[in-house]
Amino acid sequence: MNPARDPDATDRDAADLDDDFGFAEPSTDQSFENALAKARDGTRLSVDDATELLATGTDTEGIDPVRKEEVLELADRRRREEVGDEVTFVANLNNNVTTACNTGCLFCNFKDSAHAFEADSDADHAGFTKTPAESRAIVEDALDMGVYEVCSVSGLHPALALNEEHHEILRSYDDPESAVNYKPPERYATDPGTYVDQIEAMSVGGVHVHSMTPEEAYHAARGTDWDYETVYRELAAAGLDSAPGTAAEILVDEVRDVICPGKIRTDDWVDAMEGAMAAGLDTTSTMMYGHVETVAHRAEHLGVIRDLQDRTGGITEFVPLSFIHQNTPLYRHGVVESGPSRDEDELVVAVARLFLDNVDHVQASWVKSGDAHGLKLLNCGADDFMGTILSEEITKRAGGDYGEFRSFGDYVEMITAIGRTPVERSTDYRARRRIDPDDGPHGPRLGPRADGTPMLANRSGEGPAPDGESAGADD
Ligand SMILES: C[S@@+](CC[C@H](N)C(=O)[O-])C[C@H]1O[C@@H](n2cnc3c(N)ncnc32)[C@H](O)[C@@H]1O
Ligand SMILES: Nc1c(NC[C@H](O)[C@H](O)[C@H](O)CO)[nH]c(=O)[nH]c1=O
Ligand SMILES: N[C@@H](Cc1ccc(O)cc1)C(=O)O
Ligand code: SF4
Asked: Does the UniProt entry include the keyword Iron-sulfur (predicted)?
């Protein structure tokens, strides 16, 4: 066990942490000024350049406010040159299938110990497992509200297998629980079905199914010799349209060893993403930052994503995920004192825009940052403001309280308030609809059943939820 993951650690300051983790202090042979000049000229940035920009110079402690503004301004200009003044968002729904997971990531409070879900368990848990039929009903309901996409990411439930053949393989192990993290569905109070069952259930009425992260694809292949392309092809045949690039966290193994020792390593994550794209799926890419990593790790992570995109071209967007700390093991055990500062959020968005010259879209998240700061991030290089989502469990359980829903009316008001043009998009950004702010009331039109009716308007007595209040589907 890594001594850095001392569960009794308390009240350590950042300097101690650096020592404890044994991470090198960021320093490069590049200067901030040179890196900035390269960004200004549009020269492709190196990982060292990105480190300097993220640090506003590794030669000084902390973030220099004047240098930060220089980086943000360049990124905002680059955004305008590359994608213009439109701000996109998607009419979508989150449908997490299960919170049962034994992977033990220390930044995550979404998961519940899978033992608590067993039929004969007395343990209390606040989580859930949905059957395929329940998933279908939730998606059907959301289709009627006009959604284009269902985004589905879940815990690695021990009874989840790709398909029946996978169940047979997993069952055939001696001691499948410890050998391949498997327990048969009959041991649990609720059977989630197979991954294929869940995708088939959600793939209804022409909705776009965005699901199966690299970590889930690993789980869907565990104990077999199937490669990722084979797994994703099977899922695509069941109706999967694209894969979320979460489970990326920080794509540097010395950081993964600390925050998610049970997860796949960086090379495996990259393999899974390549497998998804070889199977013809689009993907998104993410980085969850602001916990134990240094700016050099963030820069290296961006390097991994840019290289992957050079090889594949299938990444539609980059989604920075600001670490929400309040209820997580990392914070409760005193390993970190907080998530990232707003300055860090702004610099991550800006440097992503400048460094990822082959990824068109950078997302700002109202779930992670709230409306006001989310809008600020749209002036630091971001051009997408995520989606309506209707339900949010990951950030909420981690302690975030910016709510679970934004209506088209909210979006139009926010985006026009910063002088930009609101645009409804498809998941892959190929379908785009500019919205005339004066032509309200606003609702989705790209979804297979969308007719412009405001979302939630056809639900009795329910209006859009104000900030901080739940408007999502019940789990
Ligand atoms: C909760 S997992 C669910 C899917 C699957 N189990 C996996 O790990 O890919 C999805 C992603 O949520 C993000 N996440 C989890 N906890 C978070 C937190 N406290 N703050 C910000 N993002 C978080 C992580 O990037 C993680 O990969
Ligand atoms: N940034 C967050 C997202 N982003 C995902 C988008 O809503 C959408 O699924 C994607 O852009 C593909 O079209 N989702 C969350 O649940 N939480 C976030 O913080
Ligand atoms: N990153 C995923 C979706 C996602 C993001 C953050 C989360 O906490 C959960 C899911 C995507 O856009 O493809
Ligand atoms: S991040 Fe995903 S794999 Fe890790 S504990 Fe949470 S749900 Fe499980």
From this structure: yes
pLDDT at 382: 99
Does an H or E element contain 76, and which? helix 65-83
Residue 226 forms part of a structural domain: yes
Of 104, 239, 266, 123, the closest CA to residue 188 belongs to 123
Residues in contact with ligand 2 by the CB-under-6-Å rule are: 90, 92, 94, 149, 151, 210, 284, 317, 319, 321, 363, 365, 367-368, 386-387, 389, 392, 427
| Residue 359 near residue 309 (C-beta atoms within 8 A) | yes
Residue 428 domain-assigned (yes or no): yes
Q: How far is CA 46 from the centre of its chain?
A: 25
Kindly tell me if the per-residue pLDDT of 472 is higher than 90: no
Host domain of residue 350: 74-434
Give the separation between CA 107 and CA 447, rounded to whole angstroms. Answer: 34
CATH classification at residue 262: 3.20.20.70
Q: Which ligand is nearest to the CA of 392?
A: 2
Which atom of ligand 2 lies closest to the CA of 284?
12
Flag whether 130 is in a domain: yes
- The amino acid present at 189, given as its one-letter code, is A
CA of 111 to the centre of ligand 4 (A): 6
The model carries a pTM of 0.93
Residue 23 counted as domain residue: no
CA dist., res. 231 & res. 380, Å (int) = 38
* Section 200-225 average pLDDT: 99
Out of 107, 110, 117, mutate this one to test ligand 4's pocket (max ligand atoms within 8 Å of CB): namely 110
Domain count of the chain? Answer: 1
Mean pLDDT, the chain, rounded, equals 93
Residue to mutate (ligand 1; options 321, 344, 393; most atoms within 8 A of CB): 321
365: CA distance to ligand 1 center in Å? 14
Report pLDDT digits (tens) over 378-415.
999 999 999 999 999 999 999 999 999 999 999 999 99
